[in-house]
Amino acid sequence: MTDHSCPTGIALSLTVTCIPEDDDALQLKAQALAEKLHLRGASCGAQLQEAPSPCSPQYRLVYTVKGLELQTLGPETGRFTTTLTTDFVHGNTGYRRLHGGGIHQPLARATGLKAGVRPTIVDATAGLGIDAFILASLGCKVTMIERSPVIGALLADGLQRAASHPATKDIMSRLQLFIGNSHEIIASLPEQPATIYLDPMYPHRHTAALNKQEMRTIRSLVGDDQDAAALLETALTIASNRVVVKRPKGAPELSARRPSHIIEMKNSRFDVYLTNRLTRAKSPQPNNPYNMSHSFCIMKNIDKFQTIQKGAAHKETYRKVFRSGQEYNQRVRSYCLQRVYPSLDVSW
């Protein structure tokens, strides 16, 4: 056991073992994981090196025939109980895969899925990978990033088991996992993602959900995500279409920047930041007093613009657009008539 500072900066006591201990295959898995986590002895029963702190949570990663489990030592009972595991085939995640609502569920709408559109997505705070798995089951290619090596080990084991199951094998081909710093990894990705999804640790609240043992364990492993606002700013510079932030109902926005729109749910919400809209607002067309490009003109409300194309065959369409244009600025109408369509005969 030890008081150990892992890459997330959280002190914890950890061992890696297997049950039953005489299973050679499980022993090899435990040894490989111990080496990856740099544990003393690098064998079944390996542990971190220093003396434990009395205040440090005591955990053990246990390989069983069902998969990798994170077990927590109960301070009152003195016994280890299973706290975290991953299962993408059965349970609640398997049910969501089959009956979650498809592209009409809030998660899918928030991340930009629609008929015929499956954006590339980066889940920069993967956790146990449930949201990433649901998006992959809907047809998206998803890159997961998890900074906690312990959570990452559980996630990798769940992905490996799901990849060998016929019901989820194809879904796993659309998932990729990185363990490390999200700021650095998303900046070094070879392809620009359309959507970056953030689900930072919720703020401390005295609610039943955060009092669950599972949530307390995850918080003790990953911390309070103090860098979440900075990660949002980084994501906004990288995502080509949008950044989505999951927040609890009633919680403040993650930064001073206001979201483009919000998708509300019963106990939480999705704050959606459209990066392409932010780019248009910050970068108006040069040398154009009415923010009009050569091929289209943007009317008074930039968020509800009308596109008008050239061509004699569409004159009737032009007339209908101009006749209903009383809500637009007179200068814009004049500009369209005099500069863009000087030969168009329109009666007001």
Note down, in words, how this protein is organized.
The protein is α/β, with parallel strands linked by helices. It folds into three domains: 81 residues, no CATH class; 190 residues, Vaccinia Virus protein VP39 (Rossmann fold), CATH 3.40.50; 57 residues, no CATH class. It contains 13 helices and 13 strands. The strands form two sheets. A seven-stranded mixed sheet has the order 9-8-7-10-11-13-12, sandwiched between helices. Strands 1, 2, 3, 4, 5 and 6 form a six-stranded mixed sheet that branches. It starts with a strand and ends in an 8-residue tail after the last helix.
Please sum up the structure shown:
The protein has 13 helices and 13 strands. The protein has 348 residues and is an alpha/beta fold. β1 and β2 form a beta hairpin.
Total DSSP E strands:
13
Strand arrangement in the largest pleated sheet: 9-8-7-10-11-13-12
CATH topology type of the largest domain: Rossmann fold
The H/E string reads EEHEEEEHHEHEHHEHEHHHEEEHHH
Structural class: alpha/beta
Summed over residues and divided by their number, the pLDDT gives a mean of: 78
CA-to-CA gap between the ends?
83 Å
Portion in beta strands? 15-25%
Low-confidence stretches: 1-5, 48-53, 278-313
